[in-house]
## 1
Amino acid sequence: MQSLNSEVDRITERIIARSADLRASYLKKIDKATREGRARSRLSCGNLAHAMATCSAGDKQLMAEEKVPNLAIVTSYNDMLSAHHPYETYPKLIKAVAARFGATAQVAGGVPAMCDGVTQGQAGMELSLFSRDLIAMATAVSLSHNAFDGTLCLGVCDKIVPGLLIGALSFGHLPTVFLPAGPMTTGQGNSEKAKVRQLYAEGKVGRKELLASESTSYHGAGTCTFYGTANSNQMLMEIMGLHLPGSSFVPPNTELRDHLTASATETLIKQLNGNKEPISLAEIIDERAIVNGIVGLMATGGSTNHAIHLVAIARAAGVFIDWQDMAELSSSVPLLCRIYPNGEADINHFHAAGGMGYLMLQLAQSGYLHQNVNTILGKGLEYYFEEPVLENNRFSVIMKTGSGTGVSEQMPATFEEKQLTWKGISDRSLDDSVLRPASEPFSKTGGLKLLTGNLGRAVIKVSAVKEEHQIIEAPAVVFDSQNEFQQSFDKGELEKDLVAVIRFQGPRMNGMPELHKLTPLLGVLQDKGFKVAIVTDGRMSGASGKVPAAIHLVPEASDGGLIAKVKNGDLIRVDAKQGTVELLIATTELDKREAKTLALKENTFGTGREIFKVFRQSVTGAEQGASIL
C-alpha cells in the first residue's frame, strides 16, 4: 500500500483533532442505537401490523418472525426529472432480489427532488438549497418508523444526494447503500450548447433555436452529461465507498445498470445476514472518507456547490471541516480530469476513458487517498480499482418468484443469462485528453481555491478559468439581483472591464439561489475581450466555469458583510493565483460608508417561499454548510 501523502495526512490529522468532541458525541448516539438491537423487535403488534398491512402473506410471515432483514427504500423518484425517472422501476427489482434471499424490502418514503435546470433564473431557485435540508428531514421521517435493518438510498442530483446522506446519517447505525441511476446518453456537445446560449444572450438567435439546442442536450433519462453537481455527487458516493465500484456512470435502462442495482441490494442483504456485524453508515463516513471526498472533488474539478454540501455532510457525521481544509488539499492534489466545463468531454467520455476506477487507482497509488477505510464492500479501497462487466452465464436459469415467500415481483426473464463480475482496471488512460495519470496531471493543483481579503472569504473554481483570466482588477458594477444585471446587459451598459458585484444573494437573504443565468452574459463580455469577473454572496452553477467567480462570499451582505458597502466604480481585485479578493478602497473611506440594507419584499411569497421563512431565519453561513440542521 502506498504511503499517504504528507499533506493529506497532516490535514486529516488536523480534522480528526478538531472534530474529536463532535465525532465522539455522534458516535455515542450511534452506539446507543446499535446496542438497542433490531428495531422491529421493539414494535408493538399494532405497530407491526400497520407496517406490513399491504405486504404479501409470505412477507408478513417473514417480518413477523423478525429474523430476516427488512430493507428501507428511500427514493427521490419523480417523472419530471430526467435523472430520477429511472428510479420508477427500482423498487420492483429490489423487492425481487430481497425475495430471492429470503428478505423483505419496502419503500419507506419519498423525498422531494427539484430540478435546478428547470428553476435556474426563476423564483423557485430560492428554495433549491433549502430543499437539501428538507430532503434530510424527509429521509429521517422515512426511517423513523424503526421497522428497518438497512437502507437503500435512491438519488442522484444536486441537493438530493447530500440531503439523503445527511438524513441517513441520523440513522447511521444502519448499513446503507446508495444506488445511482446513471447519466443520459451523449447528446449535443456541451460547448456547442454554451455557444447557442451566448448567441441567444446577444440576440443573434431566437427562443425557438435556443429551445431546439437545449432539447438536443437534455433529451432522455439520466443525469445531465456535464460535470456539475449531480455527477460530482456520484463521484463522491463512489470515492467515499457508498456505491458499488464502477457503478456511478453506467447509463440507465441497460442490462449492466439493472445487474448493478441487484448486486448492490444483494450486498446489503448479505451483510445483514452474515456472521459479522454489518458495516454501518457511521463507520464508513468518517474523517478519512470525508478527506477522500475532498481529494476526489479537487482531482476532478468538481462542483463548487460541494464547498457547502460537504461541510454539511461532514457535520452530520460529527466531522468539522472548512474551506481552509479544502484549499490546502487543493494545493496538494493534482487535477487529473478535463470534463466540461473545464474541458470538452462529457461524463460518458470520462467513464469510457477509465472512469472512477482509473481515477481512484491513480490517486491511491500516488498516496492521495486513505485506503484503509470502510466501504459497503468491507475494509479497504482495493475493490474500487476494478470495473463491472457482464459475462454470459453458463449456469443460466430463469429466476422464479421469491422462493415460496408469496412475493409476486419477478426478476427480468433474461436476468440470469448474464453474470456480473469485476475486472481490474487498466493502468493506462484510454484518453489522456480527458483523464490523466497522477504523474502527468493537467495541473499540479486541484480545481478549487479559497479567496480571502477585506471583502471576506469566498471560493473560486479555477479548473475551467484560463490563466490569463485568473487575475482581474476592474471597477465594480453593483447589482442587488441577477435580473438587474440582465436589464443592464440588455441596455448595452456593460460593454467594459468590470467586476459584477451581485449581493443580497446569501442563504439568510433569499436562500442563496444559483446565479447560472449570468454565465452566458458574462461569457459574452469575456469573449469580446473585456476583463470580467463576478463577486457574490450567492452561488454559481456547478456547470459554471470560464469566467472567474468569487462566490459564497461570507459574511453575506445581509449579515454585515463589506460587500454591502461596495459602490459602482470601486476598484476590486480578484486574484485566483494569490487567493485574494480585495476592495481597493482606503479603510478610512470605508469606515465612513453605511452598509446598504435591503428588505425582503417579493422574495417572501410565491412558489412556496413563504413556507420557508423559518429556514431563512435560522440558516447558518455558507462556510458552515448553509444549514438549518
## 2
Amino acid sequence: MKRWKIKFNLTYKIGLLIITAVLITSLTLNFIFRDHYKKDEIEHTEEHVMAMSRLEAPHFAHHILKNELQIMHKHITDYTSAVKYLSDIQIYDNEGYLIVDKNGLKRELPSDKKIKEAIQSKSMLHLWDGYKFMHFEPILENKEVVGFLYMEYNADYLPQYFAKRRTLFMTLTGIMALVFIAIGITLSRNLTKPLTAITDATKRIADGDLSVSVPVGSKDELGLLAENFNTMLESIKSAKTEVENYTKNLEHVINLRTERLDNALMELQQEKGFIEKLLSTIGATIAVLDREGKIIKVNRAWEDLRGFAEGEVKGKYVWDLMPSDSAHLAKMIFEEMLVYKAPTTFKIKLLTKDGKEKIAIANNVVITDGNGEVKYVIATGIDITEKEILEEHLMESQRLQSIATLVTGLSHNFNNILVGVVGYAGLLRIKLSSIDHPDTTEILKYVDTIEDSANKASELIRHLATFSKKAEFKTEETNLNDIVTDVIDMIKPTFPKFVTVESQLQDGLYKITADRNKIQQAVLNICLNARDAMPEGGRLLIETCNKDIIKPEHTLQKLGKYVVIRISDTGQGMDEETKRRAFEPFFTTKGLLHHTGLGLSIAYNTVKNHSGYITVESEIGKGTTFTIFLPAV
C-alpha cells in the first residue's frame, strides 16, 4: 500500500506539470495570436483608407482649383456608394472651411478640435473612434496646400471577424492541448516504474540493508541508471568495511586537528575582518583582478565612484567598464604586468553606471603564487576628475584673461588711428567741396567708403571694449522675458523667411539684476550665430524657465535659484573641436572677412560678468543648444 502511494504521487506530479505547461502555452499563444489578428486587421484598415485617400487627393485638387463643387459632390456620392464601409468624404478649402461632403455643399468651419489643429499645422491626422476610422490629410498641388480631404470608414464588421478567428484558434489549441496532455500522462506513468524501484532500494539502503539490488529491465538511460546503481551499491559494501577499520584511528587525529583548525579559523576571521574594514574605509578605489583581468572584489570607494554594486561587476573584465580608447591602454598595461610583474602608475578614463566619464590616477601591483606566476592584480585609483576640470577651466580663464589684456591695449591704439583716418577724411571732404572738378562726385564716393570703413572698425573697437571688460555695466532689476521678447521682435522681421523663430517663455519668471542692453546683445549674438548655422532654413527656439539648483551637476554650478535661457537651432551643428573653441575670441568657421568671431566671446564674457555661466550642446547635423544660467534676485 505504501509503495503504490509513492508511485501515484510521482505520476500525479509529472502529469500535473505537463498539463499546466500545455495549458499555459495554449492560453499564451491564444492571447498572442488574437492580439496579432486584431492589430493586423486594424493596420490593414488604416492602410486601405490611406491608399484611397492618396488616390483621390489629386482628383479633388483639380476640382478645388476650378471651384467645381457640384462635380466633387457627385463624385463623393458615387464613391461612397461604390466603396463598402466608406461612410463619408469631406472636402475643406485651404482656409479650413468645409465646402462639400456627402450631404451637399456647405461653407462652415469644423467643430472637431483635432481637425482644427491639423488644418492649422497642415499635417496629416488619423484616429479611431470605436471601430470608426477617420483620416484627414492636406491636398497638394505643385507642393502647395490647396485644401484638405477627410475620409470616414466604418469598420463595424471587425468584432464579428475577431470572434470567428478567436473561436477557431481556441478550438485548435484545445484539441492540441488534450493530445499533449494524454501523451504526457502516458510517458509519466512509464517513467515512474523504474524510478519507483530505485526509490524502494534507496529506502532499504538507508535502513542499513545493503543486500538489495535493482532489476535492469531495459538498455536505455533508465536501464543504465539501474546498472550504475547496482555497481555503486557494490562499491559501498566494499568501502563500508574499510571505513569501519579506519574510523577508530581517525577519530583521535580528527580531534587534534579540529582544535588546531578552530584556532587557525579564529585568527583568519580576525584578519579577514581587519582587511574588510580597511578596504571599506580607505578613500582610494581598490579592485582585485584575476590573471585574466576579471573583477573578483571591489571596495566601497570603488562602488561609490562607479555606481556599480560589487555583484553587478564581479566576473567582468575591468576594461569593459572603460571608454574604448582607455580600454585598449588598460589591456596593454595589464598584459605587460603579467610579463614583467612590475608596478605601474598611469592616468586613465573610467565609465560610471550612468555612462559618465571619470578620470583617475591608477596604481597597480601584482600578487604572485609560490611558482612566481601572477595570481592577482590589485588595482587602486584616485579620482582626479574635479581636479582635471578645474585645471582646464583655470587654463581657459587665464588664456581669455591674456587675450583680454592684449585686446585692451590694441583697441586703444587702433582707436587713435581711426580718429586720424576719420579726421583727415573730413578735411578731404571739405577740400573737395571747394574745388570745381569733373571728378569731384566720384572722389567724394571714395571718401564715403573711407568713412564707412572707419565706422565699421569703430564698431569692432566697441565690441573689443566689451570683451575686455572696459565697458561699464548699468545694472537694474528686470524680467528676462522682456529682454527675450525685445530680441524676438528685433530678429523676426530681419531673419530669412525660411528660418522659423519660436518662443516658449515661462510665466512667473524670477527677477534678475542685470545690464539690460548687455544681456540683450548676448542673446542677439547667439541668435545671429544660429541663423548663420541654418543657411538652408530651419527652426530657432528660445525658451525661458526658473531652475533651483539643489545639487550641482558639474563644477561651474553653484547652489541657488537661476533664470535659464535656452536657445536651440536645427542647423549644421558643431564637432567637438569647434564646440571646445566656440567662445574663443576671433574664432569663426565663416572666415574673418565675413565675421569678426567676437559674437559668442562677448556673450560668454557678458554672462560671466553677471555671475552666470553658459553651456553648449551640439551634434553634427542635429543642431546646437546654448543654455545661459543667470542668478535670480
## 3
Amino acid sequence: MRTYFSILPLLFFFQLTSCSDEKTTEKKDNEKDFFSGAAITNIAGDFKNEMATGETDFLRSLSTHQIAWQKWNHEILGKSKDSQRPIFALLCSPLGSASRTIVDELNENQDLREMISKQAVCTVIDSSVNPEMANLGYRLSEESKRGAAFPMIIWFSHEGSPIASDPVGNISGRELKLIVSNLTNVVEHLWTKSSRYTVENSRSENEKRQLRLEPNIEELKQPITRNELFQKETRQLSSLYSVGDKNLDFIGGLIPSNSIELLAIGSHSASLTGEVREQSREAAKVMTRELTSGALKDQLTGSYFYGRRTSDWTLPFFSKDLLSQAKVAATLMKAGNLLGDEQFTKQGLELLELLEAEWLVKEISSKSPKGNADIAGAFLWDYRTLKKILNPDELEMATIAFSLEPTGNIPLETDPLGDYFNLNSLRGKTSNQEVADKLQLSVEVASKAVKTIKSKLLTHRREQINVTREGTLTVKDLALVLRAQILRANHTGFPAHFDKAKTTANRILSNYWKPEKGLARITADLTMVPARCQDAMAVCRSLNELYQATLDQRWLKIATEIADHTIQKFGFSGKILTELAQEEQIVPLRQFSVSMIFGESTLGISDQTLSRLYALTGKEVYGGILDAHQRYIARQAKGSRVVYHTDYISSCALGDSALVAVLQGDIASELGKQFVSTLNAPKYLSFLTIRSESASPLLTPLTGLPPAKGKASVVLTRAGEALGQVPTIEELTELLDSVISGE
C-alpha cells in the first residue's frame, strides 16, 4: 500500500504528460524534447566517483562505491544538462542508520545500481552539510501529505527543480527495490517521452512553491508591539502545558529547549500577571524535570538522545548529536538559574563537561547506531534480557531505579502501533534516596549498587551494538558549545572557564571565519562549505554574549562584522534574511526559516542576535530587520492559536525599547567584576543588554548619564532615560528586580 501512495502524485503527472502528448501528436518531435538539437557532451557512464573529497566522514565512506556518486554542487546541474539526464539524489541524515544502510544497498544490489546509474546523474546529499535540503525535503513530503523521513529520494531536472520525491525511510530488500524501480521507471518515461514538459512543469511547480514559502510582512492595520507579543504568546504557551501529561500537548518526543527557556523567562517578567508567571514557572520546572528524568536522557551515560521521532511518530531515534546536547546543556543552566533550581544547573554543568571531554576532544559531532537499535538490550529492555545481565537483587533494584515494568513502560501515545510492547526505556525518576528507602538500605549502598547496574547494562549495550561516529564539526556545533561555556563561566566565575570559552571562540574564528571569504559552515583541507544564515547568526549571538560576559570589545567587533557580512550575503528586499545566499542555491528556491513551532528558527536566532546588537550599535539595518520580524510574527500571532517561534518570543522579553545596563568606573576592579557577573545571570540578562560607558566607535554615544559613583557603578537606561544608578551589588539586585520583575 505504501508504494502506491508514494507514486500517486507521479501517476497523475504521468497522465497529464500523456494527455499533453496526445494533443501534440501532430507537432514536431523536437517540441516535446527539451534538448532537441543539443549534442550530448557528457556521457553519464564516464562519470567517476567524487566522494573521496566529500565534506563529511559519511560522504567520504561512499568513495569505494561502484556508483559514480557526484558531489552536490553547482557543477552537477551542468553534468545533468550535458548528459541530458535527470539527477537522482539521495537525501541522507548522519543521525539515522537507515541512510547508511540504504545507500550501501543501492550500491551492492546490481539491479538497483545499474537502474539508477544508467538513467541518471547520481548524488548523495548529507543534511548536515546542506541543512536547507532537509527543509526542502520536509516541504516536498508535506505537499504529498507524507511524513518526512531520511533517506529521501528526490529527482531533479538539470535546472535544479524537483521532479518527483519519496521519503523512503527505514526500508530494505524487495520494498526498496519496488519503490526505486517504480520511481525510476516513471521519471525515465516522463523524461524521454517529453523532456520539455517535464522540465517546464517542474520549474513551474518550484515557482509556485516559492510563492507559498514567501513570507508576508505587510504592515498590520493595528500592529502588535513586542511587549504585547511577549505577553500574549507566553501566556498562550503556559496554557498549553498539560498538568496530567506533564508536557506541552503531547510534544514530549521533541526536546522543547526554547519552550522551556521562554517559560522560565516568563516566570520573572513584570509584563505578565502573577498567575501566568506562576503557571510558567511550574510548567518550566516540571518539563525540565521530565526532560532530565525521561527516556530522552541516556540514563547510563548522562548524555541525551537526538530528539526526533521515527517516521510513524513512535519513538525517538537512538542517535546523539553534539548540537542538540549543547542546547540541552545551555537550557539546563539557564532554567536552573531562572527557576532557582540548583539541580538543573548541576546537570547542565555535568553535561557540558561530558561534551568537552568525550565529544570535542575526540571531534565527534554525532553518534548513530548501526542496524536495529531497538532490539532488546540495546536501548530498550525486557526482563528476559535483564535477567541474563543482572542477578535477582540487582534486577529488583533496577526495577525501582529505572521505573521498569514486567509488561513494559513505554506509553501508548509514543507507541500507538504496539511495536515496542513489553519493552522498557530507562527512566531516572527515582532518586538513590528513594531506592534506598524502598529497599531499606543506606544511600551509600544503594548508590554504589545502582552504579554497578549501570556499568553492567552499559557494557552489555556496547557488546550488542556498533556505533558510527561522524567527526565533522559544523560552525554551529561550536557556536552552541560556546554559548553553554559562557553560561558556565558566568555561573562559576572561574577564570579557567572563561579561558575555555575564549578558546572555543578563537577556534571558530581561526578555522571558520575568513573576512575576505566569509564564514564557513564546514571547513576542511579539501573543501569549504559556506555558512548558512542560521550558522552565522548563532555565531554572532555567542560572540556577543562573550562580549557581554567580558566587556572585551574585540568580541563585539567581530560579532558586528559577521552580522554585517551575513546581512549583505543573505539580505532580501523584504528585510527577512534567507537561509542560503542566492548564488549558492543549487535548487532555485529561496528558503526562509520562518515556520518553526516550538523549535529553533533562523528568524528567532537572528532576532535574538540583532536585538542586542541594535541596542549596542544603533545600526539602522539591524532595526529594519527587527521591524520586519515583528510584522511577520504579528500576522501569525493574530490569527493563530499555536505559539510560533518561541525563540523569537524570548527575544521579545527585551521589550519595545531596550533596557541597557551601563557599567561605569573601574570595570576591572573586584566590584566591577561582581557587577558584570550579576548582570550576566540569566535571571537578568534575559531582559537587558550590557555595555561599558567608555567611548567606542562600535557603541552608540551615551548622553545625560550621571557621573560614576565610587570605584564602579551601574546605570540602567531605557530609551535614553536613566532609570537608576547603583554603586553596590545589593542595590543593583534590588533595582533589577524592581524594573524587571516589578518586585
